[in-house]
């Protein structure tokens, strides 16, 4: 079993805390799920208080910050796309929430759909995961998963399910 706290991480570097989304990516098992859960309350808050525009602006603002943090952590550890890097999951769930209604069912479906697309990596998620190098690939596959989950959620909303 891998160590809970990777030794190569510099816990004094703010990039570590951004990349692990406040340490949620260090939780086991399934750090991606924990990271998504860690980002979910902030996304809901942006959606409820500011609407989709504020949530979209937050996701757009977090993307370059996530790139910076991911690059720093990858340089720090020498590993690509380590499981504890979850800021990409946060951007992805925020994108999915753009298509959600502010209801518990819609938010739960957003979470489940995003986790499914992120874990199963259908095309084009797999394309970004395999073909885009470095931090950009780490971030873009979750953007694609978020968009695909969001479109599915939009379809469910259209037929009255979500």
Automatic annotation (TrEMBL):
This entry's Gene Ontology molecular function terms read: phosphatidylglycerophosphatase activity
Entry-linked InterPro entries: PgpA (IPR026037), PgpA-like_sf (IPR036681), YutG/PgpA (IPR007686)
User: What GO biological process term is on the record, naming one?
Assistant: phosphatidylglycerol biosynthetic process
Top-level lineage group:
Bacteria
YutG/PgpA domain location is 17-156
Identify the EC number(s): 3.1.3.27
Any one Pfam family match given in the protein's UniProt record, by short name: PgpA
Going by the UniProt record, its keywords in alphabetical order are: Hydrolase, Membrane, Transmembrane, Transmembrane helix
Task: List all membrane-crossing ranges.
Answer: 44-69, 90-114, 134-156
PANTHER family found in the cross-reference section: PHOSPHATIDYLGLYCEROPHOSPHATASE A
Q: What is this protein called?
A: Phosphatidylglycerophosphatase A
